[in-house]
Amino acid sequence: MMEYKDIIFETVNAVTQITLSRPDKLNAWTPTMGNEVKNAVENAGADKKCRCIVVTGAGRGFCAGADIGNLKDRSESGSTSTVEVDLHHKITDFDNNLGPDISKNFSGRFSYMYRCPKPIIAMINGPCAGVGLIFALYADMRFVANEAKLTTSFSSRGLIAEHGVAWILPRLIGEANALDLLITSRVFLGDEAFNLGLVNKAIPRESLEEYVAKITTDLVQKVSSRSIAIIKRQVRDSYFRNFNESLKIADSEMVKSFTDTDFKEGVASFIEKRPPNFKAIGSV
Question: How far from the centroid of its chain's Cα atoms is residue 107's Cα?
């Protein structure tokens, strides 16, 4: 595992927390941070000791967007390069037997989050803008502080909808709302993010960490990691299939589930009225 400069990486009780750690800059995104986050997610995805991943920000912010110094350098140089991570290098391909292969339809900077078999939760504790917002949208679930300020910000910087957000955002909140947020670059709060369907829940900042901890505890103790990995891929794969194709995949995966030890354990634990002991997934 690489040594991290712009993030903090720790796994406790099967939950890996990845903390963007440039608090004096509201955790503004840098190429170094981008490389480190990708490395950390891939490591956690392959680690049998990890069952759930939480991404958040140090201090009072989640991520204020791209570091303004990097944007200034790019504007002055006229650079057209958008590659910040080695997209071809992967620590692991995870387990290709866990659901349909989605790699052919998802590429680019944050595609590794969709391919990761572990559930990823964005705990948005404060300001979240630009690439920081996109990063959060690639998570599987999002919980935000009521008072947190969010913005797409691209149009106010002379930029466009980056890194697939023009595809993701309408699927989350509908075209009209997506165009509103993207075109105006207006600031909106956590409460509105919840009302729009952008996040799963908005919570008072002082209760956010405790609330997310309850979610992760349930994911670790009550839910099959194998089931989560397959469900993640089923949902993302379904965007490119009609109903009958998606149903055929579900039927095939259900047959496989019937023969898996997690199914036997899930039924046994229910009958015996005890917590399940599902197996860990990962290659290391």
Answer: 15
